[in-house]
Design goal:
- The protein is of the alpha/beta class.
- The protein folds into two domains: 246 residues, Collagenase (Catalytic Domain) (3-Layer(aba) Sandwich); 79 residues.
- It has 13 helices and eight strands.
- A five-stranded mixed sheet has the order 2-1-4-8-7, with helices on both faces.
- α9 packs across α12 and α10 packs across α13.
- The protein is elongated and about 65 Å long.
- The protein starts with a strand and ends with a helix.
């Protein structure tokens, strides 16, 4: 029996207590456990942003340290930005590996989208739990099945969402696996080794939703500004991050990655040229350099349009980044 171990972020540790009880009493194929939040200072889960390969490799090493089997799934919840730089992707909801992939049965879920308007506390704690459990189910499907994600958005767990409004549709449908008249995920799941246990767990989780209340909450989110502001977040949903499928995703995050690289290179050079300058002064000099370079300015503006100033700041691994962004907001209007 495969183990499914959840490594929570400390802010949401308590949210998984009832989930584990439901998961373990609903089906007999998996045994769910809750680990203590990650505390190691050198862990990539402590960074503000990290590449999926770095995180999955770390999780694979943790599985070995815990003497877990290859087919045991380790899911980490990470309060940072997940990138896939080898594919030019940024701001992923989920990155995970199938049992047949490198770093098998590992998955990481970014919690950054909580601040992007899906799960803000001003709406409802039950919606937070609902979204977290959805992402656990996506990790489970990605780790143990070969059912592929689809670009059509039915509200299915296998929707290949690259917009937050599409993810909200998934929440609204509630652990839905699409019908044979759509992309046939329900039928495909039934033929998988662990498919029936996944289906049973989906049904039980769906029964615990206050659908009327959820409809009202999500309608507020869709009608608000927050979804439109951050509509370019990437998501792997239940699909495999390893392999060729990831390269088919349509997104603009390549521009965001390029802009962050350009800015970091500029800040690195200025730090060498002016070692005695304060971070704020270096940030101002960097903004001035960008203004004088139309080509560089254009690339950075494309990056901002692909994400946001906040997303760009988190992508730049440099202590002067926040001071540069402060100045750039005033002079680089997207």
């Amino acid at each position: 029996m495969p183990k499914v171990l959840i490594l929570p972020h400390y802010q949401y540790e308590n949210e998984f207590t009832n989930f584990l009880d439901q998961a373990n009493t609903t089906q007999a194929d998996f045994k769910f456990y809750l680990l203590p939040p990650e505390s190691g200072n050198t862990s990539p889960l402590k960074k503000s942003h990290a590449d999926y390969l770095e995180i999955l490799e770390f999780l694979d090493s943790q599985k070995k340290r815990l003497d877990l089997d290859k087919e045991d799934l380790l899911i980490a919840f990470y309060d940072g930005v997940i990138t896939a730089l080898d594919h030019g992707l940024a701001n992923l909801f989920i990155a995970g590996a199938n049992i047949e992939d490198l770093y098998p049965c590992t998955a990481v879920v970014s919690l950054r989208f909580i601040s992007w308007g899906i799960l803000e506390q001003k709406y409802d704690y039950s919606l937070q739990r609902h979204a977290l459990f959805h992402l656990v189910m996506c990790c489970l499907i990605g780790g143990y099945t070969n059912v592929s994600a689809h670009h059509q958005t039915y509200g299915c767990l296998l929707d290949f969402n690259n917009q937050l409004v599409s993810f909200n549709r998934k929440l609204q449908m509630g652990y839905y696996l699409c019908s044979s008249s759509q992309s046939g995920c329900y039928d495909a799941m039934q033929s998988e080794r662990y498919g029936n246990s996944i289906i049973r767990l989906c049904k039980v989780l769906k029964e615990g939703i206050d659908h009327k209340k959820l409809q009202i909450i999500i309608q507020e989110l869709i009608m608000g500004d927050s979804i439109n502001q951050y509509g370019l977040g990437d998501n792997i949903a239940g699909d495999k991050v390893m392999g060729d499928k990831i390269g088919t995703q349509i997104n603009n995050s390549q521009d965001l990655v390029q802009a962050s690289k350009d800015i970091k290179a500029l800040l690195d050079q200025l730090s060498v040229d002016y070692p005695s300058d304060s971070p704020r002064v270096l940030g101002a000099k960097a903004v001035d350099q960008v203004e004088k370079n139309p080509e560089l300015k254009s690339r950075i503006l494309r990056g901002v349009k692909a994400g946001s100033f906040a997303a760009l700041e988190k992508m730049i691994d440099h202590p002067v980044a926040k001071f540069f962004i402060e100045g750039a907001k005033e002079v680089l209007k997207p």
